[in-house]
Task: inverse folding
């Protein structure tokens, strides 16, 4: 087993390097599935530590440490950027115009590289095999699914991952059982009416009014059809109708998302969208075409036994941090796909700090992470390693 004190000392020495890595990857955010520079750099770093990393296809990296066979824990970090124009003014800001690491995945990479370095230095103490997965394409929810298709989980017994959040204070973390992040579904609606002159509405079926009615109509689905004890969200994020002020629109296009934690709830939301869209269209004498993308990923649900095992170790490893309780988030995370195959735990780690003015939310053009949060990310991963070793020893 590892001594938390010894690990803390190793991580302390690593701090400057963690910042260097984070800044290096922050400079080069890349599109999902096109993280070529990022992949190359991760391979370079791991090779320098004595690993034999394997490049995943088309992007991403995998590397193993510890015994060649036996109980295997996977540690996962996502590596893609977002199509956001960076406005942080940081000296290490993105050099890729229109792209930014606005979700902290640069910090996730740095953290897992830190883990790689610590584990390589202490490899003789490792009694489980650790598979490090630098996963591409989380933001467009394709990466985890693609890696599972390639069989990445076949030699893995359990998996751990984490996300940095700026709305959680630096030095806080959450490892909790049960639903943690939402299933996210997507819908596309086109309302068809009958266009015409703005001055002769009686000769038309106004698609703008119909679609607007639908948007208001669905506002009470969650409050009136879903149990108050359950969680759900319906958001219409985009609404396009019409071409000119004096023309009644014959077509309105809406796009939105439903979020939930349980399959039955997700099914209910889908059914409600169809039912109410049709009712609204019928009421106006129009039509509606619906396309529904169900389950781009399932909810993140933490397996209780594994959660408690890691939580216990984290208390010892993260003595300088504070464990907090965070209600489940209505954000999505494709880590959930791994959990459909193997037990998995996903933790939240705080990287926000008002002192540094770091208070912009994830995905904001001014989002930043307090780099002093990176050592804690390493410690959380190490807690999962220790927890796996504890399980094997029993
Ligand atoms: Ni993210």
Result:
């Amino acid at each position: 087993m590892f001594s938390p004190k010894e690990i803390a000392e190793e991580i302390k020495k690593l701090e400057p390097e963690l910042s260097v890595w984070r800044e290096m990857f922050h400079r080069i955010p890349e599109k999902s599935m096109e993280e070529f520079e990022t992949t190359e750099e991760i391979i370079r770093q791991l090779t320098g530590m004595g690993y034999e990393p394997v490049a995943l296809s088309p992007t991403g990296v995998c590397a193993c440490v510890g015994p060649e066979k036996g109980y295997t824990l996977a540690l996962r970090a996502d590596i893609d950027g977002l199509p956001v124009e960076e406005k942080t003014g940081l000296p290490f800001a993105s050099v890729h115009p229109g792209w930014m690491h606005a979700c902290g995945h640069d910090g996730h990479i740095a953290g897992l590289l830190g883990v790689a370095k610590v584990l390589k230095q202490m490899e003789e103490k490792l009694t489980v095999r650790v598979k490090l997965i630098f996963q591409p394409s989380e933001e467009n929810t394709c990466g985890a699914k693609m890696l599972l298709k390639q069989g990445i989980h076949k030699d893995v017994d359990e998996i751990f991952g984490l996300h940095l959040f700026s709305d959680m204070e630096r030095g806080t973390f959450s490892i909790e059982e049960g639903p943690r992040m939402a299933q996210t579904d997507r819908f596309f609606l086109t309302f068809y009416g009958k266009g015409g002159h703005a001055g002769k509405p009686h000769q038309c079926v106004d698609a703008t009014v119909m679609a607007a009615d639908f948007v208001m109509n669905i506002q009470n689905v969650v409050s009136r059809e879903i149990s108050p004890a359950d969680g759900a969200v319906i958001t219409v994020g985009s609404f396009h109708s019409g071409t000119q002020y004096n023309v009644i629109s014959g077509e309105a296009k809406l796009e939105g998302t439903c979020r939930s934690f349980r399959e039955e709830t997700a099914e209910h939301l889908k059914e409600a969208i169809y039912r109410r869209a049709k009712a609204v269209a019928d009421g106006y004498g129009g039509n509606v075409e619906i396309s529904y993308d169900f389950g781009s990923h399932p909810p993140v649900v933490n397996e209780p036994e594994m959660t408690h095992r890691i939580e216990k170790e984290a208390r010892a490893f993260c003595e300088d941090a504070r464990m907090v309780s965070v209600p489940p988030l209505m954000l999505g995370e494709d880590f959930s796909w791994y959990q459909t195959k193997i037990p998995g735990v996903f933790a939240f780690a705080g990287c926000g700090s008002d002192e540094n003015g770091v208070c912009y939310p994830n995905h904001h053009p001014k989002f930043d992470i307090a780099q002093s949060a990176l050592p804690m990310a390493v410690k959380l991963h190490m807690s999962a390693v220790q927890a796996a070793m504890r399980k094997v020893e029993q």
About this structure: The first helix runs from residue 4 to 27. The chain has ten helices and 16 strands. The radius of gyration is 24 Å. The longest strand covers residues 158-169.
